[in-house]
Amino acid sequence: MKLGTENKFETFAAIILGLGALLSIGYWLIPSLSSNKPATAPEARTPVTKSLINPLDPTIRVDLLESAQNVKYEGKGRNIFVPGAPVEIPKPDTSPLRKPAPQTPPPVVAQGPPPINLKFFGVASRAGEAQKVFLSEGESIFVAHEGDIVNSRYKVVKINPQSVEIEDLLNNNRQSIPLTQG
Fold first, then answer.
1. pLDDT band with cut points at 50, 70 and 90 for residue 57
2. Which residues contact 11 (CB under 8 A, 6 or more apart)?
3. Which of 105, 132, 139, 147 has the fewest CB neighbours in a 10 Å radius?
4. Which of 4-13, 89-98, 149-158 is least confident?
5. Is residue 67 part of a domain?
């Protein structure tokens, strides 16, 4: 059975004509593609009154601008720059003569870098080779030499028989991790 695709020019012309027919039918069926005319009959426009604000009206409403200028921001009493700071709710001032005392933020407690969560559980050494340490973090186990970077974050600085010195490269922190049994 032949499909009639032997003549490439006729096949190409048939495809182009078929696509053109589909586009013209789609253009006719979907009114939003055919013109900028609305799909339904136009509704009667309502005149803009003083009580109705037209969002497309370009005139400047001076009365709204003046009312916005008189608004004073009073906040919620929470210091967003101190992590874990309690929310302080200011009490309303009942006396018109007394001004509230200015609130001072709580002192910022300096926190040190986070601890290194690696566990050191062994050393291996062979004659003529550098010492290796066995480290773990969660379910992951790492074998490293001095100077190696573990878990793309920790650098093994010094290997001792009972401890290993690790540097956290992200927090610029050094910590000696003791050998753990079991």
1. confident
2. 4, 5
3. 139
4. 89-98
5. no
